Fold these 2 entries.
Entry 1:
Amino acid sequence: MKQFSEKGVSRRIFLDYSIRALGAFITAAVGVPIIGYVISPVLAKSKKEEWVSLGLVEDFKPGPPRAVEFTAFVRDGWIESSARRTVWVTTQNGKDFTLFNPHCTHLGCAVYWDANDQKLKSPCHGGVFDPVDGRVLAGPPPRPLDTLPVKVEGGNLYCQYIDFRLGVTDKAPI
Ligand code: FES
């Protein structure tokens, strides 16, 4: 009789462990994907934007920098939206390209092309930049214009848009 009772207890313990293990398995199977879904937009926030085509390479001739506008797909946390972007494209030979973020590195005003002076300028506090390499020629900007990743593929010029911290000497993506 005593032996039967011990068997009954061990069966109960086994059943209890089995149910707990099954519960843990179901919780993990359901919980892990949910956690991944919830935190993935936050993790993705720090990623760069997708590569965007700016047009045919042959349309970019050596000469003054050219402002190119495009619409970018932007994800900020759980919010998805589109945003208008501008980049300045410059080339000396029609093969190698430099792309500038359009924001003055001082406080972020959008730079413009001064055709008379042949310089990129900030409209705010007298910032002046070299149109070839973006270096500061005058004013308070703490660093050159920020260059952006660029590539040529299938005859098209592609840009990866990034914004950077303003008012500091280091080029730090935000
Ligand atoms: S924002 Fe360009 S010089 Fe201040």
Entry 2:
Amino acid sequence: MAKILPKNEVAKLLDELIKDYTVIAPTREKDFILLKEISSSSEVDLSLYNVRINSKIPPKEIILPQTEVLYSYVNTESGIQLMTPPVDDRNKIIFGIRACDVKSFLLMDKFFSGREFDDKYFTQKRKNMILIGMACNDPLSTCFCSSVGGHPHAKDGLDIQLVDIDDKYLVEAVSDKGTKLLGKVSWLKDAGSGDLDKAKELAKKAEDAMKKLPIDKITITTDDLFNDPVWVQFVDKCVGCSVCTFVCPTCHCFDVVDEPTANGGKRIRIWDSCQLPLFTLHGSGHNPRPAGKERMRQRIMHKFNYYPHTLNEIGCVGCGRCVISCPVNQDIREALKKLMEVGGEKA
Ligand code: SF4
Ligand code: SF4
């Protein structure tokens, strides 16, 4: 099912969706795009979306909040009473999500559910979610999704995809949920074959605009590179700020801490980062990753070696956020190229 949404009717569509769903959509925060819950279409700003391409903070925050109360507790006369927070299983729509970020959701689904454990805090939020994607027509020079198995117009994991074709969007349902939702919007006109051809043309143009790195070679060679001195080269500039992991849509490491009060407290999970020295510090004082070299190796190995081994996927979706946000211009693609060179020399 493919329809046409004129750009001047986006607000009408969003206001209709808000009546039945919690809608999360691109808004503008100073010079950045922020995906956040909206109560009116007037809060949505798509003007930067085609220029800046993506939100500064990835939408992982919607399913894995930066801080989240797991439970709270109080001491009562009859003992400790535990209280769990209300379940957030509202019907949510994420409007305008990019293909790379949808891929990060699919990766995190594999990690947080379907293995040994089912993380209900994650899965409850993820359960009733409709993803309305916005294809990227003009990827930034920092984007490399097509090198890691993605595509700027990928539809995997989406329910509905929007493609910007001049003064309108091609709106295509790509799942049963998407077809059902689109079926309810009776005023959308059917797309013509010219619209579908135009979208295909834009998909090809976007793909051609991106340089491809032979990343699959890296997933093979990193095993042999664990003890190679090459890792030192990637930490010359690094100041260990961790921004690269906090803005990464696939980084999901967290810490669990207790916040005590006078007669109880809260147990909270917070984002953590392998780039921080305390991340692996043992109670004994020993730290198996004592310096930047080991921490940078962990970041890259996790994405390009451990992930492929355990989940059969590369743990990077090529969004380029780490490249854009690093204060010292560390570029993961340069590190990957160097690893390929060194791995090649070793082979
Ligand atoms: S963002 Fe850059 S400086 Fe900060 S930890 Fe990552 S690589 Fe190092
Ligand atoms: S490592 Fe960098 S490019 Fe890859 S998914 Fe994370 S932020 Fe995006």
